[in-house]
């Protein structure tokens, strides 16, 4: 029985959402278009299987093929990220981070994380998140002038706070992360070092961003942002626990035990198969070219915003994203996001460093190039898109301008179709 017959409502909405993605200009830096090959793994009966445990050590029968799939996914992840150990089971980036805390810390232990408004993530210690409720967080931010992380400041805070874990990460930070510098600080204070590379995983895998190993003990990521795979999480780590060399479990075992049975039950085998496909795709030469273009496109966008007189936080970008300060326009960021939605341009509002506004309606907009680069946009088109955004912001409420921009977006996307060979 076809879905269109069984549940026409859900069928219709899925169809509309697919069309929205095809007809939309996605500038949300954490979104991308996974390949039809990766997508095809997810709508399969692999979803039916229970496989609690790890390959060849399961709690359920019938895992002969699932074992092989997970082993391939783990091996590919290790190869792609030059990691000693990989756990491909976390359902998401948040769960990957939670598992790391569970593996390395006791509740109430001290973690030094990055402040949300400086570019951090909810799971890096936000007060409204489990991380901020269960662990004792202190935060580093960015320098008020440069709007970049200042390692001297991080070191001062770390020496004073004496965390057991330091997190180096980004969700809306557009600058290169200095894993080596953070490693020196972690060594000095005797802390584990964890990198959350969810946003920059594709850049790291292809050598366009410095590698977190050997400086970090553990690395977490998602698989669906610059990595362009299925929605999911991944943990990479060293095998030895340098602070517990004689312990019952090594670091890799602690991570595995924290994911299962510590945090999760049955893994999502259909997603793990898609992760395996994504890792294979990410090892191909074309993926490297794609990452290089992501960087060139983001630079062009940041440059064009500056040319148009819009402030880009920290003055530019070294990666795939940027945050612009729209406070001088005196228009709510939520309104700008909503108006952009209406012309088919998707962005997300975001706090800027030292933001005085609420996180629901902050002063910034975050944008990135991964999805439009998948559509094969080059610098020229990225600059054009920026000019359309600025035009809309400067003419907010002007219906004629809005209609004109909507037409321009449509015209542009027609030249760069996506998912033409995706059958659903
Ligand atoms: N929500 C993701 C992002 O947009 O960066 C992080 O979880």
Write the layout of secondary structure elements.
Blueprint: H1 3-6, H2 8-23, E1 25-26, H3 36-42, E2 53-54, E3 57-58, H4 64-81, E4 85-87, H5 93-104, E5 110-114, H6 130-134, E6 136-140, H7 151-161, E7 165-169, H8 179-189, E8 192-196, H9 201-205, E9 218-222, E10 233-237, H10 251-263, H11 269-282, H12 285-307, E11 311-312, E12 321-325, H13 333-342, E13 345-346, E14 348-350, E15 364-368, H14 370-374, H15 379-394, H16 399-415
Helix pairs in contact: 3-11, 4-11, 5-10, 7-8, 12-15, 15-16
D-serine is lined by residues 30, 93, 121, 171.
Task: Give a structural overview.
It is a single chain. The chain has helices at about 5, 10-25, 35-40, 65-80, 95-105, 130-135, 150-160, 180-190, 200-205, 250-265, 270-280, 285-305, 335-340, 370-375, 380-395, 400-415, and strands at about 25, 55, 55-60, 85, 110-115, 135-140, 165-170, 190-195, 220, 235, 310, 320-325, 345, 350, 365-370. With about 425 residues, it is of the alpha/beta class. The protein has two domains: about 40-280, 3-Layer(aba) Sandwich (Aspartate Aminotransferase, domain 2); about 285-415, Alpha-Beta Complex (Aspartate Aminotransferase, domain 1), CATH 3.90.1150. The strands form four sheets. The chain has a seven-stranded mixed β-sheet with strand order 4-10-9-8-7-5-6, sandwiched between helices. A hairpin with an 8-residue loop joins strand 11 (about 310) and strand 12 (about 320-325). The mean pLDDT is about 95. The site of D-serine (DSN) has 4 residues, from loops.
């Amino acid at each position: 029985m076809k879905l269109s017959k069984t549940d026409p409502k859900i069928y219709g909405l899925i169809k509309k959402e697919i069309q929205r993605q095809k007809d939309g200009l996605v500038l949300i830096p954490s979104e991308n278009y996974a390949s039809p090959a990766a997508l095809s793994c997810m709508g399969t009966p692999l979803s039916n299987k229970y496989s609690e445990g790890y390959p060849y050590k399961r709690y359920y029968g019938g895992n002969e093929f699932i074992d092989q799939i997970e082993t391939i996914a783990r091996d590919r992840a290790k190869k792609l990220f030059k990691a000693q150990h990989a756990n491909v089971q976390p359902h998401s980036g948040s769960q990957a981070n939670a598992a790391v805390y569970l593996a390395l810390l006791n509740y109430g232990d001290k973690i030094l994380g990055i402040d949300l408004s400086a570019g951090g993530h909810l799971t890096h210690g936000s007060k409204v998140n489990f991380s901020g409720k269960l662990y004792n967080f202190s935060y580093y931010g960015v320098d008020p002038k440069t709007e970049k992380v200042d390692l001297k400041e991080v070191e001062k805070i770390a020496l004073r706070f004496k965390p057991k874990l330091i997190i180096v990460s980004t969700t809306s930070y557009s600058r290169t992360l200095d894993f080596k510098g953070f490693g020196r600080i972690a060594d000095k204070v005797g802390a584990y070092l964890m990198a959350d590379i969810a946003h920059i995983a594709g850049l790291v895998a292809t050598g366009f961003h410095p590698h977190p190993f050997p400086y970090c003990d553990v690395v977490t990521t998602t698989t669906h942002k610059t990595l362009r795979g299925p929605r999911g999480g991944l943990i990479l780590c060293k095998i030895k626990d340098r602070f517990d060399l004689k312990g019952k479990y090594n670091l890799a075992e602690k991570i595995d035990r924290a994911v299962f049975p510590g945090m999760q039950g049955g893994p999502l085998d259909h997603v793990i198969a898609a992760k395996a496909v994504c890792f294979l795709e990410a090892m191909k030469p074309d993926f490297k070219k794609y990452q290089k273009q992501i960087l060139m496109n983001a630079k062009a966008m940041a440059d064009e915003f500056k040319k148009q007189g819009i402030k880009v936080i920290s003055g530019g970008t070294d990666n795939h994203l940027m945050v612009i300060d729209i406070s001088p326009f005196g228009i709510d960021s939520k309104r700008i996001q909503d108006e952009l939605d209406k012309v088919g341009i998707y962005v997300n509002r975001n706090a800027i460093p030292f933001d005085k506004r609420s996180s629901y309606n902050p002063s910034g907009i975050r944008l990135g190039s991964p999805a439009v680069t998948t559509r094969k946009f080059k610098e020229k088109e990225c600059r054009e898109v920026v000019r359309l955004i600025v035009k809309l912001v400067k003419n907010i409420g002007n219906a004629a301008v809005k209609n004109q921009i909507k037409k321009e977006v449509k015209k542009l996307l027609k030249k760069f179709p996506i998912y033409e060979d995706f059958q659903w």
